[in-house]
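subagent[fold] <- orchestrator: predict structure for attached chain, return tokens only, no commentary.
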Amino acid sequence: MTTKLSLATLKDIAATASVPAYARGGLAAGIVHFGVGNFHRAHQAVYLDDLFNLGLDHDWAIVGAGVLPSDAAMRDKLAGQDFLTTVVEQDNNRSGARVTGAMIDYLAPGNAAATIAQLADPAIRIVSLTITEGGYFINPASGVFDPTHPAIAADAANPGDPKTVFGLILAGLKARRDKGIAPYTVMSCDNIPHNGKVTRAAVSGLARLSDPALADWIEANVAFPNGMVDRITPATGAREIAIAADDYGIDDAWPVFCEEFKQWVLEDNFPQGRPALEKAGVQFVPDVAPYEHMKIRILNGGHAAIAYPAALLDIHFVHEAMEDADIRAFLAKLEREEIIPVIPPVPDTDLNDYFALIERRFLNPKIADTIPRLAQDGSNRQPKFILPSTADRLSRGEDVVGLSLVSALWCHYLAGKSDSGKDIAFNDPNIDRIRAAATAAKGDPGAFLELKDIFGTVAGSDLFRKRFAHALKSLQRDGTRATLKRYLEDRLAD
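subagent[fold] -> orchestrator:
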């Protein structure tokens, strides 16, 4: 027996899941959020739900927004359950479900006028984003905003009817400026180093293409705080929907499953005010950079490191990859010998202890996070999570045997077959181009490194090219497991 999730059924659902302690009718919008995916609903929305449950800041509820077809599908699902979400938190020793109610509306994607009108409302004081690492129109190698991207050029040519997130944010800021309304703070919640600076570059860079005076006003008046976010949140599928129904009796069209751990570190730069998120566990600091480095290099870099050997060995779940002795030892050696040594100190944090925490989180079998999720979008993830560590080591004159192996594993994966001969399914916006380079690398390893927008200056290092070629040839000749063992025995650089 299941109960359809809605405001009217919360009393019934309270028998198996915690439900909001506040009246949803008492909330008022203060945030517009672009990109209402699983991570947002397991992270920012949960922190706000915790705060609202304390009886605080009920004028900071979320209005969802988006521009993609997937956003429209999510809106339809959430609208059918009064914008409520079931969040199932799973740790090794416990599991529990809660219903969050921090979102009170979701704007129809494609209706630019309605979105701009909502953004121009003085009650909206924060606009936040989770649009994935690849959504910021930046050159992967340089990290610089790309004003020549066709979508950006189209918005610059027609700023009154924008199609991108940044075009909508810009139009909202222009409307506020023209009406004498203070600008909202723009807050990225994506896994990008200096995500506030990257977002500022996209918004002001787009403005400069059509209205330089508006760009100057944005740079002088709009805050873009940097932040670090963390919570492992797999994709939702039939399995998760069934567990919500079978274990908790909740009929939720798109529940969210996540680990129990969560972290959010933010710069306190909100000129128009903010919710008291510190009362819900958010850490406000003067400089997020050390925390960003730690999380992106160790956790996201760790995910990127294990994704391709696991995929090549036909391993589907992350915890199963960590149960493979060779993959787990590969990750530990890579992190401790090459990644952690180039991470600057983090206040009150031992980086080896942090990595031990990451290992435990990766081993959590209840999350059922998948290798295909980690392996997708490598052309955006590798330049952000792996190659910066490679570049740092090379600049210090240090070896990159393990990091070069990570790049070689990605290339070998793109050849399209696992070691057992199974076909690999890809999910990457640049798949045709990167697969062509990986195919060419079968005869000439250096051909893959000609993806200069991905590898940047790293590709110019003779040491990196040598290590990459050696690792790739080992993978092609002897396979993934033999190559991992060679690395673990310090024989890969021979």
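orchestrator: received. Logging for downstream: The chain has 22 helices and 13 strands. The chain has a mean pLDDT of 96.
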